[in-house]
Amino acid sequence: MRTAAASVAVVLISLLVACGPEGRGRLADDDGTGADASTSGPEVCDDAIDNDGDGRADCSDIDCSGVGMCPICGSVEDPAATPLALPDGIGMSTMCSTDADCTDPTIPNCVAKECHASYTSTLNFIGFPMNSMLADPTKLLSVCVEMEHSYLRDLQMELITPSGGVFILHKFVARTGGEIYLGLANDADTAATPVPGTGATYCWTPAAPVPMLDTTGTSGPTQAAGSSQELVPGNYKSIAPWTSLTNTKLNGMWTMRVTDLWPADNGFMFKWSIKFDPSLVSDCAGPIIL
Fold first, then answer.
1. Of the candidates 19, 69, 123, 154, which lies 20 to 30 Å from 4 by C-alpha distance?
2. Within 10 Å of residue 62's Cβ, how many Cβ atoms?
3. Cβ atoms of 154 and 172 closer than 8 Å
């Protein structure tokens, strides 16, 4: 299937919640018993008291993550209203070393040494402590995408960090090899009327054992999808070593960039997410993205 380039934007998954650092506990003898109500026991998540004495009350406390009306600290899902088509193989002729070499605004991204039109979407994080860094990269728990595509080998998928690093999640290897789907792709639509198939969720995590596609072109586990094979949804190893995220800035722009490097098969992005360890969040009560 083929589709023309599209200007795309996605309502994404933001995965951290926080607000100010102050607890809201009552500090002494609130119930007339003479006991300090703020340190009397486990955190109660709807009484405006810092019950366990850790300086955070109710939804601000990690102990209340996902309890009652409290959001899940480190995991808030915001799915797209409709699936959006990925740009399909736009570019290929202009060689480059960096994005600066791609002077044509219609193909602004240097990917695999070629200028291409990519899908990019950014989450602007503002709620981590000021000037904090990702000292332990394993506390970036996962980067996930829900999508479908009829040719995995077409793609390169990258996470661009607030420090400006390009972290390769899945690397384009070559324009050869057997067809592998992501999700249950629709391989029968046309460029004029692209129609999404059924998305599946793929994540990159610090401890996953195998990549989606290794440097020899060998894929991860697959399962039958009609006459083709589908990459089994689940966790995968990033091509870039997870340790290369060490000391990345936490606040700032985290960008997902997906590039289709061959105009023969298309796909759709439904949502993506980035999830951090809740211990990096000083207050779990509200969103920490701008």
1. 123
2. 17
3. yes
